[in-house]
Amino acid sequence: MKRRKVDLKALPGKTAEEVDARLHVATPLRSLLNKVFPDHWSFLLGEIALFSFIVLLLTGTFLALFFEPSMQETHYNGSYVPLQGVQMSRAYETALNLSFDVRGGLIMRQMHHWAALLFMAAIVVHMIRIFVTGAFRKPRELNWIIGLSMFWLGFTEGFAGYSLPDDALSGTGLRIASAIMLSIPVVGSWVTTSLFGGEFPGEIILSRLYILHVFLLPLILLGLVTIHLALVFMQKHTQWPGPGRTNSNVVGERMFPRYALKQGGFFMLVFAVIALMGGLFQINPIWLFGPYEAAVVSAGSQPDWYVMFLDGSTRLMPAWEIRAFGYTIPPLFWPTVVLPGILTVLPMAYPWIEARWKKDKGHHNLLQRPRDVPDRTGLAAMALTFYMVLTISGGNDIVADKFHISLNAMTWAGRIGILILPPLAYYIARRIALGLQQHDREVLAHGVETGIIKRLPSGQFVEVHQPLAPADDHGHTDLPYVGWTVPKKMNRLGALGPAVRGFFRPVEQAAPPAQEQPPAREEITSGKH
Amino acid sequence: MSESNTPVLVDLDDPNLTTFDIVREGARRDGIEIVHYEPQYPAGSKGERRMVRIVSFFFLLTGIASTAFVVAFIWWPWEYEMGSNPSKVYTPILGLTLGLALIGVGLGILTWGKKLLPHEIAIQDRHDGPSDPVERKITGETLKFIGSELSVARRPALKLSLLGLLPLGAVAAAVPIGAMIKDPHHPDVLFKTGFAGATPENPIKLVRDDYTPIRPEEVSTGGQITVFPGIPGGVSNKYADSPTLLIHLREDDAEVLRQSLYQINNGSPWQSYVAYSKICTHAGCPASLYEQQTNRLLCPCHQSQFLITDNARPVFGPATRSLPMLPITVDKDGHFAATSDYKVPVGPAFWEKS
What we know:
heterodimer, A: two-stranded antiparallel ribbon, B: four-stranded antiparallel sheet, disordered N terminus
């Protein structure tokens, strides 16, 4: 019997042939490998969210192996001495065990929590990027809506996770959540008792939140992430304007190998940051808070940062209760149910609002710089200021304490600030955008400021400008404004030689002086400015 | 450049074609033009060797840090002990080594991709907007055809009977939602606390969190104590609405309170002792920060402030209603006790609460 020698070199090719014979993938695979991606640092913000979501799934699965969402009463008997013998729920006990009695459990818990905070932060910053650059415009409205839904799903998911350990902070958050549900007119009390299975806190809320947190919401999120990415893939990425970039092409790199490698490296870095934070920075030390007791709360009870804006709106709301015909609408209803409703519907409708406002129904694949759409930039600044005032108000007791300000003054500052600051931010941001645009146009017309002062025969001093194109007799050029970066430093244009690299001694030869490069140094100093 | 714009397809059997020529031709057939393709460093140059060294360094770092992680994970003392000892740095060491390992592999891959792979600029066409009109027409007609084949429009009886399927949707919703529904009013959980059932004849004792009853002399003047209904489980979260704040007012403050007492609170305080629900009427946090100087009670969640010398009326913040007052007395054993439940619902407001 003669053994056939395996030809190692031909093996990959042969395997590929065999695969293609069965799956017929040569063409789709090639066009996938060749798909072109434009690149810009701001395109990575959404990816941070995606990568932290993956870390959340990984660490969360680990935690689920040890956590038990049970409200059954028990006495702690683990290795954390200060709580030994204390009565608590199984949920809190297993969360403590995860921190002290499971090898590597604490770092997993902390990585999970940090990844959640990073996930929400990346979503918010990504949304701001999408908004101010106009990436939500036709044909991408659907993805904008999916993105917003994912923010609220992430918010709910985060809140459910925050509630699970059943420590003092969790319980306080749940108590407030139950009050928020109670405040809904007509059905509020039904919703609350149905969800809690009776009066707060009942015995089943944790197991319900658990299913929500580990199964239902992640599943929906995963589905939406998939659709979100599939749409980006199908509709292709937006790109910044620039040389050769039009509304009907994509200029960048093919996906494989360079782009994919960079993405893979970036994922590892995001993972690394989460690992470092999870290991080095303590978060949610539930053993210090103690188990939830309805009679206990401490000063400085703050939710996670992404919930703080709603906590702030709750604190700023005046005590306006509506009572009529024997029924009540508590003031809590407006800042915690109505406000989030507005904050969902308004941005979701914004792509169509803007299309009507600007009378623009066209397809847009080119991004806009924030300065080129001053109105929208102003709106973004307004929304962000609104959000910031609420978020700071969510911790106004801490601010009052640390800076020795009256607590009541902080509340009033928030109430007044929420009315005055957003319009002010709109005005300022809009002016800044217009100013930046103006400066770009100025450079296009007059050239770059060189910092060289020249004395004319008349004795007059003038600053020499370096025009970006051949200038007419008045030193003006006729360059169109295309909504892309305009060089503003002479050095970048090569009028000055580039600096020679090297720390202690030069590692390279100085570049030969520029020749015939309009406009050269002589022209700049020759009097035509 | 899409296929139609390319005048001549490259002959792939041409023996002079390089691999890159074929790759570029493949890209062209996908509507992609590679307009620039340039290595960052000449092959074998000093710069390239430097980059190779950097990438190898990062991967080596990953190797070392990962090994350190595994070693620390297994052998570093990790079990919790009181006081300062090596177990306290177990988590930081894991984080540091894992972080370094991931940074190494991340930067290694990034450097590899960014510096060692050729830089390129490729241009791909988009095919945006609506589909080809012919395609749209064919698909539209296909859909119409499917609709007419189902022939609902031609058979009105069928259309009507389809309405019969609507309740099926209700079944889908009814089972999960219906199973969860709990009536808040039968029993009337929102209007009652653990003190329900207390009467002047059969008062319910106020107890501490260890179920011990309280005598008046045990609360110092100006002091306060959190009390619970002295019933089985009264201290636990099962009666989350029941925590009560028993306050021993200074005599002149008690007089101020007596002067301003709401009608509904008549007879509720006992001498200079008064008991308020601890559950904030705003969002249900225990309002427990008591400022003795101003006689204000502050809820730390949303800063509602209640003036305890005026029926715990809210004087600042988002809360609208006063904290309910618990009618108290001292029973025959000399212990504090409640003579009835709260007279108004405790905690956050809701629709049915008038």
